[in-house]
Structures are given as structure tokens and as C-alpha cells.
Amino acid sequence: MSYTALYRKFRPQEFEDVKGQEHIVTTLKNQMKADRIGHAYLFCGTRGTGKTTVAKILAKAVNCEHPVDGSPCGECPSCKAIAAGTSMNVIEIDAASNNGVDNIRQIREEVAYRPTEGRYKVYIIDEVHMLSAGAFNALLKTLEEPPAYVIFILATTEAHKIPITILSRCQRYDFHRISIDTIADRLTELMREENIDVEERAIRYVAKAGDGSMRDALSLLDQCIAFHLGETLTYDNVLEVLGAVDTEVFSRLLRQILDKNIVGAIGTLDDLVNEGRELGQMVTDFTWYLRNLMLIQSSDGMEDVLDMSSDNLATLKEEAQMVKPEILMRYIRIFSDLGNQIRYATQKRILIEIAIIKLCKPQMENSYDAILDRIANLEYQMEKGVVVQQAPAASGGESAPAVQPQKAEIPKAIPEDIQAVVQNWRSILSEIGAITKTYLKMAVPTLGNNGDLLLMLDDENAYTYLYENRSGCIDNLRAMITERTGKNVEITVRKNESGRRAQDVVPDLTQMIQYEIEEEDFDE
């Protein structure tokens, strides 16, 4: 016998089985008990919230031979036929593929005939908003005055597309998104019936990933179980299958961004890519993580709103004290914009890397919140004792004369191979990867003590990135130099520890060698 998906196997067969839509279930049951059945219903709501399921239960209830408290018995021939999909009294129509005038005219012709058995002929039209304007007009008269034995149930995820003339002729029921607690309780109950061992954290994450849809949550759980068949389904298993990211990773990423540690943040992203995490989902989840921080900052009573463990909540409260609200709003803005861009992007990783660099380097933006971030960064540096260099006074000012920095000594002779590198420096950088090129452009190319090419860096992040990844970055640069110039050059990366600017400590050969420099266009 073929396998039946969980969402099909456990589809509710009576009103009592429907979870999260008590306001609708109660109303329909009362109508059944009082025999006040409407002739046209409109079920609205997001996917997977039970619209079609409730429509089928209602179709069974109105034709049930022995209803129990307004709900179908499930045992009579009519209930069994409808459940099996063989009843001639229930006609399901997919308006997405049957949306023309002719399809509706066929319905108008069919309603003239009474049901062969049972009390009502029920038409369930799914995704009704897909009907054409002509089809809606053709349906209008029949919907307004159908025969007494006909009931229409229209279902849609986009109620705003339904003409007002149709809306006014239906009883409208709005299906709510199902809460995480309700979905988690239902999943736990079903796993108990299936004799499958699942961690509570795993269940809650799947319930959250369902985004208010019971069907989506069941499909995701089905997928996770299939991947780890015969094993206990753990929280880590679920993250692995769904390509999701644990909140501990978001905590580490946020702290790296707050420390302006570009190398560390890019490294964290690289780990996620290597683990096969889905980058679009990562952006969405990190934006929600930032949103949770904002809620914690906004009020003391937000613990009940946030669905997370006490340990994660304690970490969140600690991080909420580390970032100012206006800076946090900037982070949310950048990642919200990224979420819109990344949906259809082919190079998702590059877009995320750019966003991370923007967060770490607010000077790349001129917006109000970016300026506030830059000011906060300066205050943080001053608190740590980092000296912020004062800009030179304009000519004619009355400020005290500043001590001019000592200029670097010009080398007496520059080897031919180093000259060739400097002549081609811009064109060489144009062939390097985006992140490496960004950091190499911060370096001052100069002559080392052993006649090698010395790259002196002021920026701590740039030095760390190039030094720690020298087997990739520097080897690639060396190979590019050989390809461009035919020279084999040794390259040394050094952090400037003098307290002065690197260009004041060592001569920048690209500014000093007076040759016609070969330049090529490349992305800045």
C-alpha cells in the first residue's frame, strides 16, 4: 500500500477535529443544530488553515443521516461516500484551471437537477478569486437565488479580489493563522499516534516554520521524519533538513557586527554556506531575531509575546542592552531590504556579504541612522582609549600649529619586478574577488626589507582577513601578478602598529613611481 502524507492521513473528518478555528466551527455547528443553513458561504484565509477541510465537513454535515451535535457521524453511507470522494452530491471545482464563463454556465445547467440522494448538492469552488470577470457575472444570478437544495462554498486566499456583488451574497468566514502552541500540540498528538519519537524543541521549531499553516507544518514534519527515518527526530536534525539556522549563530553574528568584526561575520556566513543552510531563510530568520531584540527594548512585558526558551530570552535581554534602538532600526532596515532583494537573486551570498559590510561600516551610508551608528562607534572607540585623529585646521585658522607627521623615506632603488607590479596594480586588483579586493585596496603597497612586496595595513579587519586567509588570498594575488607581469614576487602582509597612518610610515609606491600606469575599468 502506498504511503499517505501526514496532512492527508490526519485531515479532520468532523468539526471537533478542526484546530485553531473555533469561532467558525461553533457557528457552523449551531447553524446545523438550528437548521439555519445558508445557501452561500465564503471561506477566506491563508493557505493551510482549514478552508477546504471545513467545506468538506460542512458538506458531510448537511447530508449526514445521523448528525451528532451538528457534526457529521462519519458512519452513514453519505458521510463515507463524501469522505471517499465518490459522492455525486459534492462537486469540487478548482477555479485556477476552470475559470471561464463556460465552466460556470455548466454549473448553472447542473443545479437544475435535484440530488439523487441526500438533501443537498454542494459546490465547493476553490481559489474562487481566479474566476474571470465574465465568470463572476455568470455565477452572480445563480448564487443569489439558487434552488433550495444547492449550497455554494467559495474558498479563497485573496478575498480582496472577490467582486463586492459576490461578497454581499455570501456568509463570510475568516480563517485565522493557527498559533504555534496549537500547531505544536496537534503535531505532538499525531507523533504519539504514529509512535515516532520527536524532541519538543524540534516540534516547536516545525510549528513555527509552518507560519500559521497546519498543512505546511505537517508537510515539513513529514520531510524531516523521512530524512531521519527510524531515528529520534532532534532539534538539530530539523535545522539540518530545513536548512535553518540556530539562534546561537544569530547571537554570534550580531556580536561580531556590533564589534565591527567583518572578518568574523563573513566567516560565520561562510560556515552557514558550507553547512548547506538556505540563505533566503537565514535572512528572514535574522531579521526576526533583530525584531525580537527591538521588542525587548520597547517594553518590559514582551516575554509572553516571544516564543523562546528562558536561556535564549536571557541572551536576548543581554544583547538588547548592547545596541541602541536607532542602530537596531538601521540593522532591521538593511536586512528587510535585503529580504526583498534576495528572493529572486542568483548571487545571494554576495548580497548578504554586502549587507554585513554595511552593518559593520556605517560610513558606507549617508542616512540618518547610519550617521548615528558612526557616532556611536566613535564613542565606543573613545571609551576603549582609541585615539581619534583630529582633522587638520583650515588655512587662516587660529588653531595652534599641528606637528606635521614625518614622511616615509623614499627607497633609493626599486627592483624591476616590484616596479612591474606597481605599474599593473589596478588591473591586477580588478581580477581579484570582491571581498579580497576591498581589503587589498586598503593596503599601502611598498618595498619590504628583503626586496619583497610589502602590504602595510591600518585596518585590523583587513589585516586579519588577508593574514588568516593568506593561503587563498595572497596565493591568488601572487598568481595574478605572475600572469600579468611574468614576474614571481614574494608578498608580505603586515599590520601597522606605529600609531601613525601607514602612508606616513612607509612610502606608497603606487603614488611615487612615475610611470604610465596601465589601468582597466573594474567595479569600484
**Beta-strand level of the residues, as a percent range?**
5-15%
Q: Distance N terminus to C terminus? A: 61 Å
Percentage of residues assigned to helices: 40-55%
Radius of gyration, CA atoms, in whole angstroms: 33 Å
Number of helices: 25
| Apparent shape | elongated
Average of per-residue pLDDT values: 82
Spans of at least 5 consecutive residues with low confidence? 386-405, 514-524
Strand arrangement across the biggest beta sheet: 2-3-4-1-5
Strand tally is 8
Tell me the major beta sheet. Answer: 5 strands, parallel
The secondary-structure class comes to alpha/beta
Your description of this structure?
The structure is a single chain. The chain is α/β, with parallel strands linked by helices. It has helices at residues 6-9, 22-34, 51-63, 77-84, 101-110, 133-144, 164-167, 180-194, 200-209, 214-227, 235-242, 247-258, 262-274, 279-298, 310-320, 325-342, 348-360, 368-383, 416-423, 425-429, 434-440, 460-468, 473-485, 502-505, 509-512, and strands spanning 40-44, 90-94, 121-126, 150-156, 171-174, 444-447, 453-457, 491-495. A 5-stranded parallel β-sheet has the order 2-3-4-1-5, covered by helices on one side. Strand 3, helix 6 (133-144) and strand 4 (150-156) form a beta-alpha-beta unit. Helix 21 crosses helix 22. The longest helix is centred in the middle third of the chain and has 20 residues, at 279-298. The model is unreliable at 386-405 and 514-524 (pLDDT under 50).
